Structures are given as structure tokens and as C-alpha cells.
């Protein structure tokens, strides 16, 4: 593994779940003092959804500078220690990575089109999962293999 682990979070459009997970993972890493190089991407690029920006701002995290991008827009796209998919479509479309990459699938429901009241639930579930991921890395333990429910 690199001295600073590289993490890629993939979703279909890189417009909501992967964007929120990227910001939450960076915040958790900063809070614990763990150096991480975190990126997100989609199998297709669209735009970052306003509802994602709204619910993240409730936590003091801004997605205003974030842009939707594909895997090929990410620096050194084939060199990640962890590739984490957050939707089934991205999991199925994820390209193959070499043996140095740990692939994880943490599926979360898409809150798009369900009203703003659904977004905090998904955001908070992402925070639990990616917080547990960061805590495990910080402690030198195995990262969670599946979605945390507590």
C-alpha cells in the first residue's frame, strides 16, 4: 500500500451518493488525523445534485467545488488501494483492478426523486459506513466488508 492510501468511491452518475461519501470520508479522515487521498467518480458524468449539496451543508461540509466526473477524469485512475462502489450499477460496471486494490461494495439507496426528507437518511448511513471504514484504517484493522447498520 502507498504511504497515503488512495480511495476511490464509485457510483453511476457521481451526482449524489459518491459525492457525499467522498466528503464524509475526507472529513472522517481529517478528524482522526489519517492521511487519505479520496476521490469519487461515476460510470457516467452528470452534475452534483442540489439536494446532496443541501444535506451536506447541514453538516458543515460543502460540495460546491465538487464536479461530477468519470473514472477517467480521476488522477492515476488505475492506482487505488481501495475502490468502493455505492450502487449496484457501478459495482457491475466497475473495471477490473489489480491485486493491490481492495474492492468493496457498500450499496445505498438512491435518494434522487424522493424528496429532500429522504436525503439525510442516506447521508447519515453513508457517514456511519465510511466512518467505520476510516476508523478501521486508522486502527490498522480490516476494513468493513459490508454496510454497517448500527
Structure description:
Helix 1 crosses helix 4 (119-139). The chain is of the alpha/beta class and 150 residues long. A four-stranded parallel beta sheet has the order 2-1-3-4. It is globular, with a radius of gyration of 14 Å. The protein has helices spanning 17-32, 50-57, 88-93, 119-139, and strands at residues 6-11, 37-42, 82-85, 102-105. The protein has a single domain, classed as 3-Layer(aba) Sandwich (Rossmann fold), CATH 3.40.50.2300. The mean pLDDT is 90.
Summed over residues and divided by their number, the pLDDT gives a mean of 90
| Number of domain modules | 1
Q: Largest beta sheet, briefly?
A: 4 strands, parallel
**Which CATH class applies here?**
Alpha Beta
Q: What distance separates the N and C termini?
A: 29 Å
What string, H for helix and E for strand, traces the elements in order?
Answer: EHEHEHEH
Radius of gyration: 14 Å
CATH topology: Rossmann fold
Tell me the fraction of residues in β-strands, as a range: 5-15%
Class per helix and strand makeup = alpha/beta
Percentage of residues assigned to helices: 25-40%
Strand arrangement, largest sheet?
A: 2-1-3-4
Which second-level CATH architecture applies?
A: 3-Layer(aba) Sandwich
Number of strands: 4
Overall shape: globular
The CATH homologous superfamily corresponds to Response regulator
SS summary, helix count: 4
Organism: Deinococcus arenicola
Protein name: Arsenate reductase ArsC
InterPro entries: Ptyr_pPase, Ptyr_pPase_sf
Keywords: Arsenical resistance
Amino acid at each position: 500500500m502507498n504511504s497515503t492510501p488512495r480511495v476511490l468511491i464509485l457510483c453511476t452518475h457521481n451526482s449524489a451518493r459518491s459525492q457525499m461519501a467522498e466528503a464524509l470520508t475526507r472529513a472522517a479522515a481529517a478528524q482522526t488525523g489519517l492521511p487519505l487521498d479520496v476521490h469519487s467518480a461515476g460510470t457516467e458524468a452528470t452534475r452534483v445534485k442540489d439536494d446532496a449539496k443541501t444535506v451536506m451543508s447541514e453538516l458543515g461540509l460543502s460540495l460546491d467545488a465538487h464536479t461530477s466526473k468519470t473514472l477517467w477524469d480521476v488522477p492515476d485512475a488505475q492506482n487505488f488501494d481501495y475502490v468502493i462502489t455505492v450502487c449496484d450499477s457501478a459495482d457491475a460496471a466497475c473495471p477490473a483492478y489489480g491485486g493491490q486494490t481492495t474492492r468493496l461494495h457498500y450499496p445505498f439507496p438512491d435518494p434522487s426523486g424522493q424528496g429532500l426528507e429522504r436525503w439525510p437518511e442516506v447521508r447519515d448511513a453513508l457517514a456511519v459506513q465510511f466512518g467505520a471504514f476510516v476508523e478501521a484504517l486508522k486502527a490498522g484493522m480490516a476494513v468493513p466488508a459490508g454496510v454497517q447498520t448500527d
